Amino acid sequence: MYNATEQFADINKVGYDNAVKLASMSLEKAERFTKLNLQAAKVALEQGVFTANAVAGIKDVQELAAVRAKLTEAGVQNALGYSRGVYQIASEAQADFSELAEEAWASYTKGVAAWVEKASKNAPAGSDFAVTALKSTVAATTAAFDQFSKATKQVVSYADASVRAASANAANVAKATAKTTKGRKAA
Q1: Phi, psi (degrees; rounded to nearest 5) at 3
Q2: Are 25 and 100 in contact (CB under 8 A)?
């Protein structure tokens, strides 16, 4: 005998399991962000102490320019390192959440398809049109989600490439600026 309640209970159990996975992943990513921020705070403190000591030891204008260039380069490198860390964690989180969403959707559509199939076998006579419409709706929804998923992956890929290029460009600009400042000091 067909029991729709059991099928819906199974679908809900899968949904609950996915919610637990999502919460676990969210906490893991939050923990990584917290560790990254603590590390950044330690680096900022160390950089502050180094800066104070360096500034205290300045004796002339040329030394001031050299210290300023060195501190600027260190600050830019620290900022780039931090932003790379944030980006890496965020990218991994996005990939993990996307994978979970795809798994959940696949499981859900599989469950709904099984439910529709069983319901159609137990449908009253004359409901063929309604069953066909329901199957068509499920198929169209699945196809739309697949297209949306593909488009999202492409956008994420383009955004990733753009961020990596911008990061590399910022690092190159920081190095070029440091070289220019050092060249001025020598002149």
Answers
A1: -130, 100
A2: yes
The torsion defined by the Cα of 76, 81, 83 and 89, in degrees rounded to 10, comes to: 180
Q: What does the pLDDT look like over 19-61, one tens digit per residue?
A: 999 999 999 999 999 999 999 999 999 999 999 999 998 898 8
pLDDT of residue 114: 80
Residues 6+ apart with CB under 8 A from 43: 78
Classify residue 47 as exposed, middle or buried by CB count within 10 Å of its CB (0-12, 13-18, 19+): middle
Residue with tokens 């590399």: 168
| Listed ranges 97-101, 159-163, 177-181; the one with the highest mean pLDDT | 97-101
Instruction: Give the pLDDT band (50/70/90) at residue 183.
Output: low
- pLDDT tens for each residue of 100-135: 988 888 888 887 788 778 877 877 777 888 878 888
108 residue type, one letter: Y
How far is Cα 103 from Cα 97, in angstroms, rounded to an integer? 10
